[in-house]
Amino acid sequence: MTLAHHRVVITAAGRDFGRTLALRCAAEGAEIYLSARTLEAAERVRGEIRAQGLDADRVHAFACDLTDPASVREFAAAVAARTDHVDVLLNNASRYQHGADLLSASDEDVVETLASGATGTVLVTKAFLPLLLASAKPDIVTMVSGCGEKGNHRSDAHDSFYAAKSAQAGFTEVLSRRLRGQGVRVISLYPPDFDNHDPLSPAWEGAPRTAKDPLTAQSLVDCVLFAVGQPRDCFIKSFYFEQV
Predict the structure, then answer these.
(1) Closest listed residue to residue 43, CA positions, set 62, 21, 22
(2) Residue from 198, 241, 178, 168 nearest 22 by CA
(3) What separation in angstroms does the CA of 190 have from each of 25, 124, 144, 148, 187?
(4) CA–CA distance, 36 with 62 (Å, rounded to integer)
(5) How far, in Å, CA of 113 to CA of 182, rounded?
(6) CA–CA dist 241, 215 (Å, integer)
(7) Phi and psi, residue 239, nearest 5°
(8) Whole-angstrom distance, CA of residue 27 vs CA of residue 60
(9) What is the full DSSP assignment across 1-16?
(10) Which residues of 78-101 are buried (b: 16+ CB within 10 A; e: fewer)?
(11) Which of the four pLDDT bands, split at 50, 70 and 90, describes residue 220?
(12) Separation between Cα atoms, residue 187 and residue 86, nearest integer Å
């Protein structure tokens, strides 16, 4: 689908999958409001988008630390100063914490993991809800993780990451029910670990994808675009993925 008439906010777009989302959504014609923990990182991705020949006036970069409520409010206020509505909020930000041993992470790592993935998601959604409610086609898309799926134990992620993702899952579940009456679709993705190929690579569009291959970032973006592109009476609440 095309995103030519969509205004899209993406958190943690400075690297990895957030960068992939920003590059792809911009290529599909969306006006992008991207954030990263530092303005330098956000501007770097903005520069990559501009280098593709896309309209520089349709790409905006901001700093936002999701562990800091004041930073989240400042990010939302800065976006509100540039637009009167947002059509899609892509909750991508969440610090990953590795380690199957609970004792392997410091208290500070645990707090930051929970703050970015759980508290940060709630705060960003809360801050942008007024702009979303001003849209005729509002969607909230959250990259949860298979770690947020009940009974999942396949990942080597730390217990605190599991806790953060479980919190995201619970939040989006209740949010979907409470916002549906206002026309807001809440879409959650629960991917396992996936292959995040560089979207600027020539192999990005041409590489074949088969049932035997690991899940790719390209496939995840395709899921997001598919859900957002459905008629407004179609509420696709969740994407779950079979793991080999």
Answers:
(1) 62
(2) 198
(3) 20, 19, 5, 7, 10
(4) 7
(5) 31
(6) 9
(7) -120, 120
(8) 14
(9) ---TT-EEEESS-SSH
(10) ebbeebeebbbbbbbbbbebeeee
(11) very high
(12) 16
Alpha-carbon gap, residue 201 to 227, rounded angstroms: 25
Give the chain's largest Cα–Cα span.
48
Reference 17, options 91, 67, 70; nearest CA is 91
Residue type, 55: D
Q: Give me the domains of the chain, ranges plus CATH numbers.
A: 7-240 (3.40.50.720)
Query: What is the tens place of the pLDDT at every residue in 7-45?
Result: 999 999 998 899 999 999 999 999 999 999 999 999 999
Measured CA to CA, the distance from residue 74 to residue 76 in angstroms comes to 6
Give residue 225's identity as a one-letter amino acid code: L
Query: How many CA atoms lie less than 13 Å away from 94 in the CB half-sphere?
Result: 30
Give residues with Cβ within 8 angstroms of 45, minimum separation 6: 13, 14, 19, 22, 23, 34, 36, 61
Place of tokens 């095309």: 2
